[in-house]
Write a structure and sequence with these properties.
Elements lengths: L6 E2 L1 E4 L2 E4 H21 L10 H19 L2 H27 L2 E5 L2 E6 L6 H34 L6 H40 L4 H38 L4
Parallel strand pairs: 1-5
Antiparallel strand pairs: 2-3, 4-5
Keywords: ATP synthesis, Cell membrane, CF(0), Hydrogen ion transport, Ion transport, Membrane, Transmembrane, Transmembrane helix, Transport
Pfam families: ATP-synt_A (PF00119)
Family: Belongs to the ATPase A chain family.
């Protein structure tokens, strides 16, 4: 289990170094999402049952998020992207809470398994990507001049400085909210295990239920954070693709 001295393994391509744990766990999350969708969408039937019900419920759930934040005509434009985003963040949040893999090398633990969203670079990159996409679709819909007017000069032009600052704060809040919740969950799980190691075997009757309760709570938080990330992303999208009144 993770402790406070744990580090990720690194690799480099030329002069550029990469966090191997984050890269491998991000790729694994993508593979899991693809495998899940592939499995659930094989042999689709007019009367869904079993695995087809699961994927259809998930699609309807995400559509409900979009309907709450976008006009009806815009929902279909961002539905597939939102389902993919929700699935990836959900899997990335939960994957490091199920188990851990760390190797001790010279007294230093190197982690080979953790939630990629427990790394601020990943969450800030996701947040930046979503904010950039909102601007792209805003320009695509209104043209550059219309986008500037709708996004920054409406309803009154003197709010321009505040709206520019808001674009930067949106990235920070969107990314750090996700990172903080997932990272805190993993750290606390590690602290519970460290407590068991320090107190000895007699503490297991106390530590094990505590660990299981916190894992369950963290899984719930991971699902909530996937929901919040997609919801806020669509709120920001609505500000760019719908006219300000």
């Amino acid at each position: 289990m993770r402790n406070l001295e744990e580090k990720s393994w690194m690799f480099h391509i030329g002069p550029v170094w990469f966090d191997g744990t984050v890269v491998s766990m991000t790729l694994l999350s993508c593979v899991i999402v693809f495998a899940f969708v592939f499995f659930c969408t094989r042999n689709l039937q007019l009367r869904p049952k079993g695995k087809q019900n699961v994927i259809e419920w998930l699609i309807d759930f995400v559509r409900g998020i979009l309907k709450d934040n976008l006009s009806t005509k815009e929902v279909n434009n961002f539905h597939l992207m939102s389902v993919t985003l929700f699935l990836f963040i959900f899997v990335a949040n939960e994957i490091g809470l199920i188990t851990k893999l760390a190797i001790d090398r010279g007294g230093q633990e190197f982690s080979f398994w953790k939630s990629p969203t427990a790394d601020p670079i990943v969450t800030m990159s996701l947040a930046m990507m979503m904010i950039v996409i909102t601007h792209f679709f805003g320009v695509q819909k209104f043209g550059f001049r219309g986008y500037i007017k709708n996004s920054f000069l409406e309803p009154v032009s003197f709010l321009l400085p505040i709206k520019i600052i808001e674009e930067f704060t949106n990235v920070i809040t969107l990314g750090l909210r996700l990172y903080g919740n997932i990272y805190a969950g993993e750290v606390l799980l590690g602290l519970i295990v460290s407590m068991a190691n320090s107190l000895g075997w007699w503490s297991l009757p106390i530590v094990m239920p505590l660990e299981m309760i916190w894992i369950g709570f963290s899984l719930f938080i991971g699902a909530i954070q996937a929901y919040v990330f997609v919801t806020l992303s669509m709120v920001f999208m609505s500000h760019k693709v719908e006219s300000e009144h």
